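ok trying again, last paste got cut off:
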Amino acid sequence: MLEPQDSEYLWIVIVGFILAFVLAFGIGANDVANSFGTSVGSKVLTLKQACFIASIFEVAGAVLIGARVSDTVRKGIIDINSFNGTEEYAMVGSLSALTGTSVWLLVATFFNLPVSGTHSVVGATMGFALVAQSLHGVQWKTFGKIAGSWVVSPLLSGLISSLLFMLVRRIILRKPEPFEAGLKFLPLFYAFTITVNFFSVFYKGSHTRCLITDEPKTGRLFAFLQILTASFGAFAHGGNDVSNCIGPLISLWTIYWTGEIAQKVAIPVWILLYGGVGISIGLWVWGRRVIKTVGEDLTPITPSR
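nice, full thing came through this time. structure:
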């Protein structure tokens, strides 16, 4: 057990806060494109408008619901009890995880690659646990669930997206009067979008075939719906991915402040806010690079798509 607030380890905390900000910056520059890339690509929002809206919802998500996932990153991936008596190893390990993840995210963003901050921090956290405590330092059951989601998530996302677009094309875009059909079904899409996003937040194309209606006013019916779901996505992202930079930082802070490893800690709101602000700054400074990749370079985007 360390002495609480031992000045010998203060440098680790200071460097940890700096690296956590760098990591939050990288997450904002890279991952926020997942929510608002298509809104910018379809010209529903300008880049400045997207950054402004995303900043509000990212910070709100980080502060309001970020503590839950941050605690999972802190103690769910590794067996923190295995570091009892060697708390300094846990501090240095958390610092190493922050370093590796932030460097990788910045490199990926420089090359316009949309990568996952969650994958990165999970791998980095596992890496230092394996070095320090061998195989018994990792919570393999929790890791199995996380790794399973990496496979299931893109498959389900692709399937649901395909089915939804086929439905929209059938009941709206290919009708003789698509604008009137869109007005008729739009309330159902609003209700569905709000329901799905509230549940997810608060519960724990081809160039050779024309699939778009060139009647632009029908496509614009989906514009506000797209902004709405992107805003919910940013809120959920802030609540989820702030943990990537704040989880290891909380370990550093609590060990330094109390001198011991605790299963349950009260996560300070100001640390969550610190991560949310870092994400927003990264989005404003460098996020346009990946937003362009997601919203413009992959496939032509319209509001209905």
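cool. The longest helix spans residues 223-258. DSSP finds eleven helices and no strands in the chain.
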